[in-house]
Amino acid sequence: xxxxxxRLTEVSIRQQQIVEHLATRQGETEQxxxxxxxxxxxxxxxxxxxxxxxxxxxxxxxxxxxEAFLQMFEATATLEGWxxxxxxxxxAPLLTGEAQRAYFTLPAASADQYKEVKKEILARLGLSPIxxxxxxxxxxxxxxxxxxxxxxxLTRLAQHWLLEGAPSAGQVAERxxxxxxxxxxxxxxxxxxxxxxxxxxxxxxxxxxxxxxxxHWDAGERAPPFPRRVxxxxxACRRAPxxx
Length: 244
What we know:
mainly alpha
């Protein structure tokens, strides 16, 4: 009986050793397979996003809304997981006409930045924030067109004007104030201040003060060498009768 028990114990220990050995071999095999997969993935090049873009997106045409086209591109790029550093070079082959010329006239450093490319394209096509502000103030309701479409268009202009660059609420309010003051200035001041392109109320006030000083300086240079009252008195003396 003792021999049988001893034999069973030996068999059990042997089976346990075999199971542990198989488990170790299985773990080593799985690690080896994982390493092979990783090495294979490194050797296989990732698909070129430009090739994917050509399959997923049409080229820009003269009939397309440029802003809508760029929004469609951004949505696709985000969905496909393209790195944002690649967006500019992925977009370039899809551009045509004035948008394409805007891209190729940018310096190399700016042409690699999607935000700079988008900004230049919109500016070339009259869709800069300044132009959007102008269109917003010139907007008129057209009774024959759907009200919903007109409201959407006005909303787009307002967003492009006021939300460019993701400003804070205070900066949005400041943009409205700057625009209102600029439109209320006399034409001579408006031109002088507009050339300085103020982006804050402080810059605007400084530009207005400089325009005031320049205008006063010009007025002083054009003024007669004597005070106006003295000149008038001299003219009156010349006209006085000499019968005394």
